[in-house]
Amino acid sequence: MSTQELVSFVVPIYNEEDNVVLLYNELAEVSEQAKLNSEFVFVDDGSSDLTVSRLREACVNDPRVKIVVLRRNFGQTAAMSAGFDHATGEIVVTMDGDLQNDPHEAPKMIEKLKEGYDIVAGWRKDRQDKVLSRIIPSKIANSIISKATKVELHDYGCSLKVFRAEVVKNINLYGEMHRFIPAVAAQLGVKICEMPVNHRARQFGVSKYGISRTFRVILDLLTVKFLLGFSTRPLHLFGGLGIASGLLGSLLLVYLAFERLVLSIPLSNRPILMLGVMLVLIGLQFICSGLIAEVLVRTYHESQGKKIYFVRSIIQSSNKNPNDSSSALPDNKNRESDKLYRVI
Predict the structure, then answer these.
(1) Going by fewer Cβ within 10 Å, which terminus of the chain is more open, N or C?
(2) What is the pTM of this model?
(3) Is the pLDDT of residue 214 over 80?
(4) CATH for the stretch 3-228
């Protein structure tokens, strides 16, 4: 396999002094075997060991290598975002720096990408991790994320992915949202596929993933769900909740009014009266929050010139009506017939 497109390997690393040189050597070997036009962007996320110095020594004479050293540990999402910003290739390959992702899978995924996809996601079908602490929680999380985002993937947590550069360049990442890139990118209308990839057991170092990360992922899932469904129409969410709450509260108050006025039942000791009033007030608060959110969304889009749509391509023909004087353009401004512009 060979390609003239520049392939940027983006690898976040954190305290991987025993793995980083081996990973660099393996990436270089794979690139040479597959005849890839490559660059390697290693993002050190504030390592406190010898990761950076060992990597620098190993690739001191390799102009393909960029080492982006962050000032402190910002987290994998920030490191991934820094890698995207410094990558210059038309194709971007992401992977972890712990050697569990197999670099030899990258050429096959790049070939798959060229079949017309924008994202090829890795699926660790035969995952080499602990069953109770890693595999089972991961399967549950992947099922929840797939149902919530409506982007069906077996393995959102696999860092081995291949992207068209224009996809990742148009996505802003926060929190733990790097794992949700396929779901967020889905709103751009991208074409996504999933491939089973080889997964290897960790040989050196310790895992940086803990149970606390699960809770952050859940909160980020709520953010992603909101962005996918209501980022340009928040009033539909808050207004719907407000109407439901207000309607339920109003029905309770109407029923209590009937009891008091028609059946002469006293209301002074009825907790349901307070519930009805609270539901109405909560409904009003939801609607007001939705209106405020609508103003903020419009300010965000209009002040920064943000579009609420994404163009895949523009097809424009230079064939004009000969009777139309506006078609008479200088020769140097004539366009090629049916020229395709890819804009994402």
Answers:
(1) N
(2) 0.70
(3) no
(4) 3.90.550.10
